[in-house]
Structure formats: structure tokens, C-alpha cells
Amino acid sequence: YTFRTRRLERIGNQLRVNDLTMRGTVGILVAIFVLATLLSFRSFLDAISISERSVQAQSSAIDGAPAAQPAAAFVEHAHVPNKDKFVDKINIPDYLNAQPPTVDEFLKMRESSAIDKAPVAKSAQVPTKKKKEATNKSGQDKELEELERALRGGPKKGGKTSEPTFELKGKACSNLGVTALRRVPKLGDGKKVRPAVWNFGEPVEWTHGYMRLKTSNVPEELWVNQSSTRGNERRLAVLVSATAAYHATLLAWSEDVRNAGMDCVVGSMDALTCAFAKKLQCDCLTLFNVNLQQESSQGASWAGNRGAAVKLRFMFVLQLLAKGRDVFMHDADLFFKTRDKPKEVAAFFRALPPSVKMCVSDNGRRKEAFDGYNLGATYFRAEPEVIDLLNCALSNWDNQAFDGPHNDGYYLRSQPRMNHVMEDAILSGRLPFGSIVIPPISFFKRTMRHMTGYPSVEIKLVCAQAEGVLRTPACCDRTLAYNVPETSTPQAQRRAFLGALALAQDQGRAVSVPYAFNRGKKVSFCLQYDTSYLGPLVLTRPESNDQCEDTVLRKCYAFDDLMKPKVRNEHSKLLGICDPANPRLSGTHSCSKSNYIKKQE
Length: 601
What we know:
Helix content: 25-40%
Distance between the termini: 96 Å
Structural class: alpha/beta
């Protein structure tokens, strides 16, 4: 009996513990639900307040707006051939064209204001010998004072020093609702901004200069399988801006672009490139005042050719958009990974919904302001908003809002200009948040390779050939090729390559860049060998390192046979060897003399 009694007591205690645990769990869940409800309600109130501020701003603009010029004035300036189509799409409300008052106008308004002449309440008066007007000001008076400081570009009273604001010129900026830009430091200033028009699912606020765009939701199967059924009445133009230094990249590129059903267009930045582009059956654009110097093997500085090129390429885009042509613009050092990848690129842009006006590359989260998106590979739809965006940025390229130290390349690049205007246009509500998107990560990973960060154009192109992304057309592929044993040493591979150069020069051929191996593993050819001065001597690598076979234009040799020819004196100092695992090579992606290993032979 005692045993049974104790057992029943233990069971009862356990049941009480379980009951308390269950009640505690239910209490926690109820508290979480209440907290989530309160947070959702607060977000809803924030959204309502944003909408109310937008309506108030629009109402105040309507009350004091000057007469607006017709929207068609910009279309005349942009030389759009199909003017009626664009004018119908613009339909700009008058109040959105309203310009803010100048400082002088504002001061006159304040002098005639009834607020300034209103008597001060006795409770607000200070019994001193000298009356201080600042002490007697009402709340409305203080707001006017803050607005006066904002118009003058000064900081708020009692607050942190803010960056000055600079007026933008041009009708295009007014169309976007961006009449002035705030100078934002390179690393930002932490100022939070909120869009004037907010829709559900969009960010309520973000730090100025660090906006994050939506990712395109185009299903991957539509562009990978090229099965998009959405028709595009406008044929896509693929634009590359180049000088003679990049002529080698245009050979296979023009052929691949045309085979994908797109138009190849070259923006000429010197006197030679247009004639070369026309031989490749590509359209050519030029600006009469453009004549960039030939880029040297040491590259070009931001203050020279490269600094000018970043602006000129958008001028070329604007020429095509004004003719009603959609454009995919990419840098000359961006390559399609294989010959069929342009077809996937074309299918992706065809599958974008009509609401998407631009598709830009994602740089990821950066420390620098307005640097989150790379315009080196951008899709532009021929729409009035896109034309306004480019015209606004180009017309104010040298605006003081973009000023900075002249020895800092950040202030010469296109991102701080284009991304700044783009973000402020979205903040104004004139450019919808979802009208500019980024592609999914898989899109660029599958289709393109951007060769950035190399010390010179020559090394960059050799490395692109070594990776197989810079291809030589079949008509011109007169090469000497060979396979590399995976167990061979870097020194043996160098000796075979120099022997191949000697034989190729006797036969009037170029050496096909071989695969490189280190300790039995395939490595980057450019990380293991210094490719300086190899440009005219090599062509693209074979499709694989399998058995080499002779063709009409290609001659194959065995690896051991290339050890026999005598190395020529002019080749003896080529192809220095580095350790591909050396972390110091990551900055330039290539081997250099300062990083050679001791054993070269």
C-alpha cells in the first residue's frame, strides 16, 4: 500500500510539472504574438505617415508651383525620332516640374511673412536689457530658420554638420524630381532617407548612398533554355566602347552577338576603331570631339583615357536610346564564357517584364557610398525615364556634388554619379523602386567573365585567352598546340612553352596558351607565369587538355619534343615563374617580377 501511495504521489507531481510547463509555453507564445502584432501596427502607422507626407508635399507643391514647361521640350532636346510615342508616355504633372525657391526669393517671402510680424507671447519674453529675437521665436519661426539654412547648404542648428546641397541643371533632372543633390562623403555620413512614395514590400528607409535594389524574378529556365515567349518588338543592341587596344576582343564577340540575334554596336574612342568595326559588320558610334590616345602596356590612369571613357560610353548609350533601341552595354574587358552564352543573355533580357527599365550589375555591399552597383554591364530599355536619367547625369557630370580629392579615383568613376542620381530619383517617387533591378547571381556566373583588376590591357587579354573566354575566330586560328602532363613541374612547362615559341616563330604560327599545373593540380596560367610581352605570340587555349589533334590550321606537338628546340635569346627572359598560392598576387590576378620564385630553370 505504501509503495502504491508514493507512486501515485510521483505521478501527480509529474502531472503538475507538465501542466506548469504547458502554461508557461502558452504564455510565451501569446507574448510573442502580441509583440509581433504591435510591431506590425507600428510599421502600418509608419507607412500611413509616409503617405501623408507625400500627399502634403504634393499639395504644397501644387499651391506654390510656377508654370511648368511642356514635357515635350526634353524630347526635342534628346532628338527622339518617334516623339508622339514618348510624349504620350511622359504625361508629367505640372506640380512635379515645380522648382524650389532660390535663397533670395525665400528671404523676400520671409520678410513679408505674417509670422515674423506676429506679436510674441508674454510668457515667451525674456526680461533682459537687450531682447534676443532668437529666444522669442515661435515653433513655426524656427522651422523657417531651418529651411533657410537648408537652402544655403548649411548645417542644422545644434546638429551635426551636414554635407552641402548643389542645384542640378536641365529639364531631365526636373522630370525625375531631382533638382539638387546632397554631397555625400566617400564613406557616407549615416543619414537615413525615406522614399516619397512607398508601396508594400519595399524598404521604408535606408542609409543614403547604400540603397539595395530588388533582384529580378525571371525564372532561370526561361533564359537558360531560351524559352521566353514574351516578344520584344525592338531588336537588342549590344554596345561595347573600345580603342584599338581592344580590337582583338571584337573579332569573336561580333560573330557571337550576331549569331544570337542581336546587333553588335561599337562605340569608337579613336580614329581607327570605326573602320575596324564596319569590317566586322557592326554599327559604329562616334563623338566628333573624342580621340583618346592608344592605351599603353602599362594601362591608363583614371585622370586620362579611362576617366574620359567612363562618361563617353553613356553618351553612346544615349544615342541608341534616342533612336528607340534597347541596349545592353558592357565593358570591353567583359567576355561571354562560351559562344552560345549571348543567346542566354538575349533570352534573359527578353523575359524581363515591361515595368523593368534597367538591369544593373550587383557589386555587393561596399564601404563606399553609391558603389553598390556596377554599370559595366547594364541593360537599358528605351523609355523616357531612362533617357532622363542619363541626360541628367551627363549634364551634371562635373557638378560640385561629385567633387573630391583629385588623387582619389573614386570621384572620377561613373558609379558615384549615376547611382546617386538613380537613388535620388527613386527617393522622389518619379522612378518606381522596382523599375531598376539586379539579375540573379547565377546569370553572370553562367554567362560572362569580367576581367578587372589586371595591371595592363595586354596582360588582361593574354589571361582572357588563357581562361578560354577570349576566343580567336576559326578563320584565324593558325596555332601550335600541345598537351601538358599534369605531373610536370612549372620549370618544365616553362621550358616547353619557350620551345613552342621558337618553333611557332619559324612556322609563322602563334602558340595556343596551354593549361598550367602545379603539384598535380590545375592552376591559373597567369598566376603561375608572367605573361608580359606575350600578346602577339599567343592565341586562345584549346577546348581541353586531352589529346591534341592536327587540323588544317593547328599543328600539334608532344610535350617532350618541345624540350629539344633551342630557346631564342629574345624569349629567354619571358614567362617568369611565381607561386600561384602567393597571396600578394590576388590584387592584380597575375604573376609579376617582384614575386618570382628563386628557382626559374
